[in-house]
């Protein structure tokens, strides 16, 4: 809020000082004006997302606008907001909307003229083309009137050039710029590698003296990457003013490229500061007597973990007890991170800012210091650990009779990998050299795995019978050599051992969600998954019908049944790729900030869901642990001090943190895939690598293909190909390609 007020105040001061200069942007609304607009419904708030393919196009995702984002066209209407900022938006009037449409149409015609794509397009011809290609005219057009939240210390990666480039004082649409906005010779242009970020004008004095010599040489060749940040963005400057922070290194090096993807994703990777480390307990650490007295002691139970073989942050374990009446007590035991991460401390604030552990191909960027995530919180075998447990009393058929929640003390008897558990499920035994606590045996653990597997199968079948849908994206796994370079790549295979753990973690999350939602109807942190975007689902089912497959998208259950009925794995893969485009991301939310009709989780087809099972790597789970702990107090003592609005802000922070982690993880996977493919290509004749691909879509200027082996889903634009010519058949939605004779690929 203070940052927003500063934006508005500086805008008004700048407007007075620059009356003699041409003003490009309008001053931002004040904090009070934004608050009033949100209350009155004349403004909406959301996160800005700038298109990587068309930088003039941006979208704002707004809670409550389920089927449509607000479309922002052009840098002027974006009003100095950057990709990732939280912004306040006013919807355009019909007159403003028509002006924006006209500007968009003119820009499209200029692009077509540059590319030689034929005649200029009118409004009617653009609408007809949109209809033919399944594109939809944006339903909501808007303009940004204030930046509600942004990171003033955010850094960008890019190259420097000393140029007489001029800033366009209108709309970057190719018109000659006003001389008042020309970049002075004492300024530098910083060109970000992230295409969603505009070029930044850097005055010479904003470059550290220690690297000015390097800047002068590197700017001539573009051989060096730098980091920069925006300092201010005056109303009369089309582009922001900034400063160089540091030199990053030459492009193309693995270390440099990894730094780039972390910076572009805004993932915090700096070491934990001393005030944060001061919050950690001293070593050697042991469970305090007060906790021993207050918790349920389960150290004698046969409890074990199943994780990837290389995992260090073990935050979940399972147990299975056979009762005298023939039923079972099935336990999920989660590291009690909230015992160590207490509210309003430097450690808590840092975990909140990071929000999530980020898993790259070669490393993990932890949310918590290693002392916690790899030692004191990690459920390592043979040591006493604090846990939060959910225990169900189940019948042999998997029907739940009752559920118990409580803080516990556990001692894991064994650390298993998914491969260990899979061997047992397939009829084998655990290896003789497996370390098992002497109070238990490998044979007992193997028997528990078989029973848990049987119960998980029943739980899974019941979930799908009740309408859950499963559309998993592909995950790549890499084998690295001693130098950290990829030597092999394969699709990560989900087996029965993964499903075993997944089913019980889902059950724990659902059980906890019900508990905290009932106890704290206005403050619970839950996770929702809205239904697919209806127009996209309709397009998907129509396309599937054209391909000869009837897909019923009327509900999650019907969708799952339709996809499960497809026998051909390649066809199923194609349809799943197309179906994912219609899906929304699941999001955290505060129950008091949304009507109960919006709580539902579409993919799981459950009315209430949350995240409880991974507090070492997700801040949302720490919040849920605190809520669950408060719910277990006596009725007279139950209270939770976080107000609804604060919980809403925390939910938003957790969503952004999860988005940042996913962006970095995806970029890391693509980086290592590029390195691996480059290695293969250099070893092949003629430098060509041949792989089978599936055509997903044929468009007027591109073909979308999927290479299942490498999880590549890519549009290949015709202008990239060595073509003599191409012909687009709009009625048949097909392309005829003529290759240049010298470039024929056989």
UniProtKB/TrEMBL annotation:
Residues 100-117 have a biased composition (Basic and acidic residues). One of its GO terms (biological process) is mRNA catabolic process. One of its GO terms (molecular function) is metal ion binding. Residues 1-20, 100-122 are annotated as: Disordered. PROSITE patterns: RIBONUCLEASE_II. Its main location: cytoplasm. It comes from the Eukaryota. It is found in: Cytoplasm. Residues 295-634 form the RNB domain. Keywords: Cytoplasm, Exonuclease, Hydrolase, Magnesium, Metal-binding, Nuclease, RNA-binding. Gene3D superfamilies: 2.40.50.690, 2.40.50.700, Nucleic acid-binding proteins (2.40.50.140). One of its GO terms (cellular component) is P-body. The keyword Nuclease applies. InterPro entries: Dis3_CSD2, DIS3L2, Dis3l2-like_C, NA-bd_OB-fold, RNase_II/R, RNase_II/R_CS, RNR_Ribonuclease, Rrp44_CSD1. Belongs to the RNR ribonuclease family. HAMAP family: DIS3L2. This is RNB domain-containing protein. It comes from Syncephalis pseudoplumigaleata.
